[in-house]
Amino acid sequence: MQNTPRSNRLHIAIFGKRNAGKSSLINVLTNQDIALVSDVAGTTTDPVYKAMEILPIGPVVIIDTAGLDDEGALGSLRIKKTIEVLNKTELAVIVVTADEGITTFDEEMIAKIKEKKIPMVGVVNKVDTYELDENTIKTWERKYDFPFVKVSAVNKEGINDLKEKMIEQANIEKHEKVIIGDLIEPNDFVVLVTPIDKAAPKGRMILPQQQTIRDIIDHGAVAIVTREIELKEMLKSLGKKPKLVVTDSQAFKKVNEDTPRDLTLTSFSILFARYKGELEPLVLGAKKVKNLKPGDHVLICEGCTHHRQDGDIGRDKIPRWIEKMVGGKLNFQWTSGTKYPTPEEMEKFDLIIHCGGCMLNPKEMEFRINQAVKNNMPIVNYGVLIGMVTGVLERALEPFPKVKEMFEKE
What we know:
Number of domains: 3
CATH class of the largest domain: Alpha Beta
CATH superfamily of the largest domain: P-loop containing nucleotide triphosphate hydrolases
Largest sheet: 6 strands, mixed
Strand content: 15-25%
Number of strands: 14
Helix content: 25-40%
CATH topology of the largest domain: Rossmann fold
Number of helices: 17
Structural class: alpha/beta
Shape: globular
Strand order of the largest sheet: 2-3-1-4-5-6
């Protein structure tokens, strides 16, 4: 579980006032001293992310946030950062103290969490120092419509009950998704085309390729990995027809030419767009690329901060391909990591092109796409865009008939 990618971990954010015991609770939940604990209010400043294992929940990312009652100009910035955490939160834990109860700060955060439809668990901390009436807790549960658990982070009381409620509220099994498993049957052959060029990481495969292989194996099928230059001969040598050919988007054109038309073809990026839950708007965004005119403004967003080399997909290849299609120069800007435009910042762009989002959890990728859709901003990801530029997109959407039909109708 230690090797589970951050993007595949349940993101649990801890919210509450200063000195409510958030950091102490994290240390007890994880059974490690990973969060700084102090009697001084405001010890936690910017949100702190820690990939951990919480048994029996499994691999998670714990997010320790600044106090909701932080003060001053700097405190306001910290609270803003805390609220931004909601865009990637899959389970929220609200920590209040037994003696103070639910404050207006807590109520405001609860309202924000409910607005984003994030499941919640309430923690009544410090029950070792103050006895809280059970009827009060039941009243809170009826009023706010989520469970509260009494704990003492100091004495480690109620921690197992809290874990059970967290599992129940997160409904982990309901939200488990597959990358490719629903498209294949046990013993099927799946061919994965993974170009190896100077941009490929030395000695390993990129994360989407690793995760797809694992999903194929988990569903009892056989993964066959090859480069695009060996694909044609490899397909001829197979004694069994593969159920699916999946390619890196950058090799779309050659792989399309070398893959017989009776075989189903798609890409890692298209699989992951669906895995994150938002393939449809990205496919619609691809059609908007044809409406671009020389001089238009395009934002290219990447979810990670990898080292860029000559021929980088986001900095070099995609801008070149689009400008060739448009027939003139475009104004490109780039963001990476956690940076993403606000609705006001979006107004100056005509298109957003996003990476595959393999380093972002589904909640954050969903937020980014929905933010664009709500503001009438066309958005497309690398793989869908490359499929359109190379003329392979309709074929690559064949595993997803409803999306293909929508693309053809628009």
